[in-house]
User: Which sequence fits this backbone?
């Protein structure tokens, strides 16, 4: 009887341990820490925006993908610092240390753009200063909204995986994979496969930090902001800003025929498209060296032409 009882207790302990490990695997993991000195911008509606600033030189605003942290830019930020640029990495509402305010009914891309502009002002940007913007995926919408609001203060934009005007079919395999990336209740291996399909070209390694840092509440706010803002109000990014688009050749979410090809067609004098081979929608962790080199060349040329004027 005692032997049976010991076996039963042992079985219960094993089950408890397995259950604990399973629950821990399914618990949402925060993003890694973004590079830079952390400060907060208090917005009129009570939102608190986390801003990470580092480096010296012309300022570059960084805005990240749907529900993702600006820590995704860490490697690029380091390259920009070495090239003589200052990065201002802005966590959007509901992501990381940033919180939403009470202005839920008026949430729009332009409200998020005003958050970003306020962060730049806090860093010392004045009405006469020129800044640059880099937006990844969802962030490309916000940097274009910033350029629309302040066309004379944005010297150039880099759009990485520049979706925006295309409609994602909720029944598409890639759309389901995108949404499942936020589903912590999914078995870890299955969720990893979903992230891989939505964001990475076949065969590319997924860094551990890309398995973490998916902020569902922030993503919902961003989707709400998109739905509340007409594409025609921000798509042209103010009408004067030079734009470089980094297009993943294997991007399933934002393929060129529905994104970068159309931008180049509609704004041929302002838009240049760089196709990154063996890259999907993530791009930044897939081809970091090529991305950094192309961006630094683009920004340096603009800086050079501005200096010679």
Assistant:
């Amino acid at each position: 009887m005692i032997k049976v009882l010991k076996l039963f207790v042992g079985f219960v302990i094993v089950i408890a341990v397995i259950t604990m490990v399973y629950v821990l695997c399914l618990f949402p993991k925060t993003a890694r820490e973004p590079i830079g000195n952390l400060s907060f911008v208090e917005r009129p509606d009570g939102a608190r925006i986390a801003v990470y600033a580092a480096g010296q030189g012309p300022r570059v605003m960084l805005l990240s993908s749907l529900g993702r942290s600006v820590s995704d830019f860490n490697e690029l930020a380091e390259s920009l610092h070495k090239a003589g640029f200052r990065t201002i990495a802005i966590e959007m509402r509901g992501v990381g240390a940033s919180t939403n305010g009470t202005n839920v009914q008026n949430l729009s891309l332009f409200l998020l753009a005003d958050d970003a502009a306020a962060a730049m002002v806090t860093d010392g940007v004045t009405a006469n200063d020129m800044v640059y913007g880099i937006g990844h995926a969802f962030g490309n919408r916000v940097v274009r909204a910033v350029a629309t609001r302040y066309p004379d203060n944005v010297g150039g934009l880099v759009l990485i995986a520049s979706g925006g005007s295309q409609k994602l079919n909720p029944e598409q395999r890639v759309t389901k994979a995108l949404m499942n990336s936020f589903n912590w209740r999914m078995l870890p291996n299955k969720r990893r496969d979903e992230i891989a399909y939505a964001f990475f070209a076949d065969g590319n390694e997924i860094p551990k930090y890309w398995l973490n840092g998916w902020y569902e509440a922030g993503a919902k706010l961003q989707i709400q902001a998109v739905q509340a803002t007409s594409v025609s109000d921000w798509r042209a990014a103010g009408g004067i800003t030079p734009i470089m688009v980094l297009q993943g050749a294997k991007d399933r979410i934002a393929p060129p025929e529905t994104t970068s090809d159309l931008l180049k067609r509609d704004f041929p004098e302002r838009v240049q498209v760089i196709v990154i081979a063996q890259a999907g929608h993530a791009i930044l962790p897939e081809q970091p060296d090529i991305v950094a080199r192309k961006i630094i060349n683009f920004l340096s040329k603009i800086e050079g032409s501005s200096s010679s004027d």
